[in-house]
Write a structure and sequence with these properties.
This protein has a domain of 79 residues: Orthogonal Bundle (Helix Hairpins). 67% of the residues lie in helices and 0% in strands. The chain contains 12 helices and no strands. Helix 9 packs antiparallel against helix 11 and helix 11 packs across helix 12. The protein starts with a helix and ends with a helix.
Length: 184
């Protein structure tokens, strides 16, 4: 420990001596700047600072007034509205982060754990089935297994069928699902 402290102090002293020696030798090296150049530098710095301020305040400056802004409401006094209706985070995206939906995350986790059900098998349709075929097959199966119709405890089957129809009937969801589905 003492050796480390001694080493740090000696390096600091040597660095200090070199800096002092270098400054005595090179005193003539100060740049000579005219008044006109000072004005240009100061003006450029002021423009840059104003531009940064405008960039940071762009959301506040460009914000449209809503009906809430025009009225004198009680929630304005304690800023209740702002607490629960802040737009921070809605449209801001951290760099390097992909915008993944809850559905993407659900499909990805189920695919990783090999728990992603084959909704095509549940509905009994081929993978290239049209929206009409999907709807027709869903209604046909739903009539057969609906808990009110069968008087059995088929709630889980019905929930699984509804989920299959929900995913496969929506074009975007179906594309995401197909991306994660592994068929052997």
């Amino acid at each position: 420990m003492k050796a480390l402290v001694f080493l740090i102090i000696s390096v600091s002293i040597v660095g200090l001596l070199q800096t002092t020696y270098a400054q005595t030798e090179l005193i003539d090296m100060m740049p000579k700047i005219s008044d006109e150049e000072n004005i240009i530098i100061f003006g450029s710095a002021a423009i840059i600072i104003i531009a940064i301020f405008l960039f940071l305040a762009r959301d506040t400056i460009l914000r449209r007034k809503t009906q809430y802004d025009k009225e004198d409401l009680e929630s304005k006094k304690d800023r209740t509205y702002e607490k629960y209706h802040s737009d921070w985070g809605d449209d801001y995206e951290e760099l390097g982060k992909r915008r993944n939906t809850k559905e993407d995350k659900e499909f990805r986790e189920a695919a990783i754990n090999d728990e992603l059900p084959n909704y095509y098998e549940i509905l009994g349709i081929p993978r290239d089935a049209t929206q009409g075929e999907i709807k027709k097959k869903f209604r046909e199966i739903a009539k057969k297994i609906h808990p009110d119709k069968t008087k059995e405890d088929s709630d889980e089957e019905m929930a699984e069928l509804n989920k299959a129809y929900e995913v496969l009937s929506d074009k975007g969801s179906r594309e995401k699902y197909d991306r994660y589905l592994k068929i052997d």
